[in-house]
Amino acid sequence: MTDPLSPTSPPASSSPAAHRKKSEDLRSHRWYGAKDLRSFGHRSRTAQMGLSRDDYLGKPVIAILNTWSDMNSCHTHFRQRAEEVKRGVWQAGGFPVEIPAMSLGEAFQKPTTMLYRNLLAMEAEELLRSYPADGCVLMGGCDKTTPGLVMGALAMNLPTIFVPAGPMLRGDYKGQFLGSGSDTWKYWAELRAGNITERDWQDVEDGIARSPGTCMTMGTASTMTSAAEVLGLTLPGASSIPAADSRHAMMATHTGRRIVDMVWEDLKPLDFLTPASFDNAVTAVLGLGGSTNAIVHLIAMARRAGVALDLARFDELARSTPVIANLRPGGKYLMEDFFYAGGLRAFLREMGDLIDGSQRTCNGRTLAENIEDARTYNADVIRPRAEALLESGGLAVLHGNLAPAGAVIKPAAMEAHLRRHTGPAVVFRNYDDLAARIDDPALPVTKDSVIVLQSAGPQGAPGMPEWGQLPIPQKLLKEGVRDMVRISDARMSGTSYGACVLHVTPESHVGGPLALVRDGDLVTLDVDARRIDMQVSDEEIARRRAEWQKPIPKFSRGYGVMFLKHVQQADTGCDFDFLAPDYRENAGEAPTEGEPEIH
Ligand code: FES
Questions:
Q1: Ligand 1 atom closest to residue 105's alpha carbon, by position in its atom list
Q2: Which of 488, 489, 490, 530 is nearest to 398 (CA)?
Q3: Probe residue for ligand 1, chosen from 75, 76, 106 as the CB with the greatest number of ligand atoms within 8 Å
Q4: CB under 8 Å to 510, separation ≥6 — which residues?
Q5: Residue 381 near ligand 1, beta carbon < 6 Å
Q6: Which atom of ligand 1 is nearest to the CA of 214?
Q7: In contact, 569 and 458? CB cutoff 8 Å
Q8: What percent of the chain is helix, strand and coil (3-state, nearest 5)?
Q9: Cis omega (within 30 of 0) for bond into 164
């Protein structure tokens, strides 16, 4: 049996030897191989680091973009993993160079890492452009680091492999497993309802994140690393390996070996990323019951690859894709269980003909070849399609007079009786207003109310934070209410759950209809009809629109100004307009094609 993680077995679909690059063809040759004063400087400064010409000259330079940081608890093992990637690069005859990149620590960064995803994408692109990289290994995993790194690398389109950080071990609390995020919300609600003590709450705090690695539910991190694997950007099986497992270190070394071959083969992401491979990623995210955040990120990643993925395609695929991974927050198990059950390779095999196995991947083989020997070892964790958790509907895209350009909901993670619901709106102007009033005993709210949060979108918050799982008012929690219809232009953590309508587009800050909802307006959610509407006449909406005043921008200097000026709406992935592959500033005035000559 072949080891799917090993890049040493001959790839079934690799480039013919005749197409292998020569040393003089390497991009890094312009830095190291030229006989000029600039290259003298590059070589002498490499010698300054104790490296002789034998160490690097004529070898592929592999840039390892490492998002390690003391402010990213999910990547604490990345210093060591970078060494393991380097070991593989050296073994294969390459020259590894580790370059730190912005870390985006989800647990610490305010107001949201999403404000900085595009900044990481820009940084990754420019690091690869400005340094002598022939190929790159991207080290990420904590939520936005995956799309940020991948978006930047796709813009450069060098041979690329992504090393996912891997999920952390299961959380532990009084003999029970804890799931990242989902159990945080659960026990927070119990604390606010008076059902657990502060001491219990501290025990949850101490046990919920007990090893390196990303959140271990099928939250945004595991959703996006799984998507990266399905796209062929990781070695097969890589995304499911727990960070603390020794096989994770082996995967890092295998990656280091494989990326050197990819450079010689000149196998680049845009050689194998196709509309079908993005359909595969969407289908996998749906089958996994993955995070709604994947919608924004996959659309942005696809656009960087020149693939026109849109909300309609998500909804179309969701109508026919079963949820077969029994993983929290929608299901029962955690990522560690998923790995022991066979991981993503077994999952993809169970998905059968819903996945187009002919798509190529970074190891030179097709997806089908990478999973042909995969087996499921626990059929309750990775269900056969005949025993799916849900036959369809992992995500749903809504439209209506509240969201003309779309909104999303995760039907798999909401109470079923709310799928069709009408109730009066209780409107909060912004997050501060919500925080100040949500637990006010005098708030006129019942379990049938629809809670609305404005100014939480890409420009309004700004950065479209994960505020979308709006809190249930305390007085309703005490009555036993655990789910209500909630609407915002925010995103929601992939570890969250509830009847939360998210990504309302256009957002309220730019004058979307969400800005025009008033307390008491009747709002109707109909998941099956894919509708979200306020029962307000067109005339009244027009009258309110005429009165509406554009809010003052949140930034007056720095990166924030650039963000507000260029960020696009959620339905197109929240990328900056000027980072689109076909963007041309002052078209016709300057050379615009290809990589500029670097001297
Ligand atoms: Fe890093 Fe959740 S906080 S993945």
A1: 1
A2: 530
A3: 106
A4: 457, 459, 460, 550, 569
A5: no
A6: 4
A7: yes
A8: 40, 15, 45
A9: no
* End-to-end CA, the chain: 48
Pocket of ligand 1 contains residue 142 by CB under 6 Å: yes
| pLDDT given at position 443 | 96
For residues 232 and 366, the answer to whether their CB atoms sit within 8 Å is no
pLDDT at res. 192: 84
The tokens for 516 are: 């025009």
CB 393 within 8 A of CB 318: yes
Length of the chain: 599
Interval 21-38 mean pLDDT: 94
327-345 core/surface letters (b: 16 or more CB in 10 A; e: else): bbbbbebbbbbbbebbbbb
Q: What is the pLDDT of residue 594?
A: 57
Which residues are registered as beta bridge partners of 176? Answer: 173
Three-state secondary structure call for residue 150: helix
Residue 5: phi and psi, rounded to 5, are: -80, -20
Residue 418 pLDDT grade (very low, low, confident, very high; cuts 50, 70, 90): very high
pLDDT score recorded for residue 592? 52
Question: Would you state the pLDDT for residue 497?
Answer: 80
Q: Is the CB of 215 under 6 A from ligand 1?
A: yes
Span 43-60, pLDDT tens digits: 999 999 999 999 999 999
Scan for tokens 């009165």, then name that residue: 547
177 forms beta bridges with 172
How much distance in Å is there from the Cα of 106 to the middle of ligand 1?
5
pTM over 0.85: yes
For residue 57, give the amino acid letter.
L
Supply the pLDDT for residue 120: 98
Whether 364 contacts 497, CB under 8 Å? no
221 touches ligand 1 (CB under 6 Å)? yes
